[in-house]
TrEMBL record:
Pfam families, per the entry: DHQS_C (PF24621)
Name under which the protein is recorded: 3-dehydroquinate synthase
Keyword check for NAD: yes
Keyword set, alphabetical order: Lyase, NAD
Source organism superkingdom: Bacteria
Keyword NAD: yes
GO MF term set: 3-dehydroquinate synthase activity
InterPro entries xrefs: Dehydroquinate_synthase, DHQS_C
PANTHER family: 3-DEHYDROQUINATE SYNTHASE, 3-DEHYDROQUINATE SYNTHASE, CHLOROPLASTIC
Domain 3-dehydroquinate synthase C-terminal, first and last residues per copy: 1-93
Gene Ontology BP, a term: aromatic amino acid family biosynthetic process
Length: 129
């Protein structure tokens, strides 16, 4: 962490699930537990990676299995418009360019820049309650 203070490289991958997670926290006026919000963000990131053709179905599904097994939430009731607006202020974003940490496989994080809005909406649909 101390070697990447601007979160532009290695430290950035530690933010897996945090883009939507932080948006949920903001939507909920910071009354949600961080881990619960990031859990939903991780499922979203897995679905985003899957829908973008980067992550296989089994690995995306495993996110749900593991997180559910420890009692963490998998879905959220907020609107996609609220989430999208709050994701734009994420520290990984560059102006209006949304950037997400996704997986190319287990243990293979990467940055997905400017995903197609239809793919974003579909991924959000996978975590909407």
């Amino acid at each position: 962490v101390s070697s990447d203070l601007k979160e532009a490289g290695l430290r950035e991958i530690l933010n897996y699930g945090h883009t939507l997670g932080h948006a949920i926290e903001k939507n909920e006026r910071y009354k949600w537990r961080h881990g619960a919000a990031v859990s939903i963000g991780m499922v979203f990131a897995a679905e985003l990676g899957r829908l973008a053709g980067r992550l296989d179905d089994a690995t995306a599904d495993r996110h749900r299995t593991v997180l559910e097994s420890v009692g963490l939430p998998l879905t959220y009731r907020g609107t996609s418009a609220q989430a999208a607006e709050n994701m734009k202020i994420d520290k990984k974003s560059r102006g209006d360019l949304l950037r997400f940490i996704v997986l190319d496989g287990v243990g293979k994080p990467t940055v997905l820049e400017g995903p197609d809005p239809a793919v974003l909406l579909a991924a959000y649909g996978e975590v909407s309650a």
